Amino acid sequence: MKQIFLTILAVLALGTSLFAAVGCDLNDPDKDVKRLFPGSTGYKTEYVSISQKGGDSLLVKIEQRLGDKFQGLFETGDVPYTMYRVFRKKELLGYIHGVNQKGQYGGIQVFLVLDTAGVIKTLYFQKLTSKAASNLRRPSFGKQFAGLTLQDFYKYDVVSGKENGADRITAIKNPSAEAASDFMAALRAVKKNLILVDEFLLGNRYLKYYRPN
Amino acid sequence: MKISTRSRYGLRLMIQLAGSNGKRLVPLREIAETQQISGKYLSRLVIQLRRNRLIRAGRGTNGGYTLTSKHVLIAFLILGGLTATSYGSSRLFYLEAQAVASYANSAGENEIFWYSMMPGDPMQKPSIGFDLLQRFSGEGGDWGILAIQARVSYDTSRRYDLEPQLYNAYFKLKTGPGDFWLGHNKPSFGFSSYLDNHGTLLQPLSMYGFGYDRDWGAGYYRDFESGNLALSATTGSGMPLYLRGNYMLSGRVSKGDLNQQNYNLGLSASSGKNLEAMGYHLMPMDPTPTAMIGTDAILLSNRWENRLEFIWSRKTWNYPQNQYVSDYVIFHRLTANLLDENRLKLEVQNRWMLGEWGNGMLTLAGSYQITADLALRSMVEIDDENTRVIAQLYWYHKI
User: Fold this and answer.
1) How far apart are CA B86 and CA B74, in angstroms?
2) What is the pLDDT of residue B319?
3) Mean pLDDT of chain B
4) Can you say whether the dihedral through the CA atoms of B276, B251, B151, B395 is positive or negative?
5) Do the Cβ atoms of A143 and A132 come closer than 8 Å?
6) b vs e for B214-244, b when ≥16 Cβ sit within 10 Å of the residue's Cβ?
7) Subunit contact A21:B372, Cβ cutoff 8 A
8) SS percent in chain A: helix, strand, coil, step 5
9) Which of A106-115, B111-120, B161-170, B299-308 has the lowest mean pLDDT?
10) What UniProt keywords apply to this chain's record, in alphabetical order (chain B) (predicted)?
């Protein structure tokens, strides 16, 4: 019997190159949704993954739109992205979606609060243990993102940190110089987040603005 | 579900071998023709399957391959059957498998065991299982959650038998004033009530006789602006369900949002008539009047996590007549999150028990996330009499 269990484990281990499953949920969605969408009465949770929707070919397209490769535990095709549709009674108010992103001390979790057109209302750091980066949690930092869309973030290169165009992203001020790596990680996370929301919730309405380099 | 090409071809190969019913060896050429897989690719695949002892080879003119055990395939197909029904955007479904072994030095004797704690304890043994979370929604949003978490474990305390184990098995109803749950869930007491310790070697105080990891009953949960309230009324029987005049009422109130403020402080109380159970095995005793008060704290800072808990517990044993036994326990766990994406966790856990059954236990633990699905964990546990070394390979895969 012992051998059967160990053998099953060995078989399962054959598939471990699948690299899956580090999701990003709101830890207290009841409280967080009310706080992020004042006046909301409920929310609906949906799980989607790149592998489920389009597999490797979709992953490649998303990487192209991001301008960087997906890597590590947080960015596999099997990651279950948790999408929250927020309602006032039956009226759709907007969306909340979070992503895991490699930060200075492990992972940070960056949630975007979006209206129904995919325009950022604010952003919310759920996991951020760096003391130096605690200023990123301030409302004044989140307000700098209000009104931005994926159309703006397409001009921002997440690898170099440079922007080609209106400088709306590079105008965002880092409130803590000691937290430069978490700040850069947050900008990458926001762009990744917007692309995933566009792909999974908005029917790729921002794809027309994408210009490959 | 995304299965790697290697795993898919391996499964197809094994299904074909099963079809031969073990009566003959199937040549590689025949498998390649039937499955439309290149011979070169197959020859690499069979090396891996042989290495894992899933198939064996026979030489000679009638040489080929056959399965080592039909049971392996049966188990694998059951898993496959489970996964086939798991699609859906309102559902999360994970498969779980683990191998556990421990080496103990007690009174000068060395022994190897196939479990992480005591043989009767439910936590970690070689097992396979699943973890299901199903959400229910209407036009105005989510209104309910069903959670089921179950395993079949290899239990050496039951004459090498298989033991079915149920962990989460509850339905949670979301309402305006808060969430209500009914079923088998964590009672609302202490640090254990909100810690996800399902697959971990390192365990909180609920696994050392201070409350229960899971219990049958109902509960209520409500968030506040900074903190939350949790209440539960459960049977006080732990993993198994028994009704012999036993019950347990528990509550925990907390301050601080761990996710926003990186700290949480809790105050808990519990009272009832509890049954003494070790895992799924009930002790032959009447319900024992039990009261507990506890306080706990978590603080996160940079790469460090600090967890501290204090519990006072009083039990009234019927024999000897109405004897009170008070215990005090102090618990501390320090965690260092290291490497990219916190792949490596190093932990030190101290537990000091004062009072009638006073003792101490020091635990050193390490966990390395090999891939998103696979973790290698180890632990050294040192108490007054024993030293144990435990290793675990834990697989948890989203379908």
Assistant:
1) 19
2) 63
3) 85
4) negative
5) no
6) bbbbebbbbbeeebbebbbbbbbbbbeeeee
7) yes
8) 40, 20, 40
9) B111-120
10) DNA-binding
How far apart CA B143 and CA A41 sit, in angstroms, is 11
Cβ-Cβ contacts under 8 Å, B392 against chain A: none
* pLDDT at B284 (0 to 100): 73
List, for residues A130-183, the tens digit of each pLDDT value.
998 899 999 999 999 999 999 999 999 999 999 988 789 999 999 988 999 999
Distance CA A117, CA B148 (A): 36
Q: What is the pLDDT of residue B70?
A: 54
Exposed / middle / buried, residue B332 (Cβ in 10 Å: 0-12, 13-18, 19+):
middle
Coil/strand/helix, residue B144? strand
In chain B, the residue whose alpha carbon lies closest to the alpha carbon of A30 is B223
| Residue B386, strand partner residues | B106
CB contact under 8 Å between B371 and A19, yes or no, is yes
Listed range (B100-104, B154-158, B281-285, B390-394) with the worst mean pLDDT: B154-158
Q: Phi/psi at B188 (nearest 5 deg)?
A: -85, 70
In angstroms, the CA B27 to CA A98 distance is 51
Q: Is the Cβ pair A14, B300 closer than 8 Å?
A: no
Q: Hey, how many other C-beta atoms are within 10 angstroms of the C-beta on B206?
A: 23
Q: Which two tokens stand for residue B33?
A: 């023709």
On whether the CB atoms of residues A74 and A101 are closer than 8 A, the answer is yes
Q: Which of residues 89-108 of B touch A (CB under 8 A)?
A: 89-92, 94-95, 97-99
Distance of CA A182 to the CA centre of its chain: 14
Task: For residue A152, give how far its alpha carbon lies from the nearest alpha carbon of chain B (Å).
Answer: 28
Compute the CA torsion angle B112, B113, B116, B119 (nearest 10 deg). Answer: -140
pLDDT at B52 over 90: no
Q: Which of B39, B45, B38, B36 is nearest to B14 (CA)?
A: B45
What confidence tens digit (pLDDT) does each residue in B89-140 have?
788 999 999 999 999 887 667 788 888 877 777 788 899 999 999 999 998 8
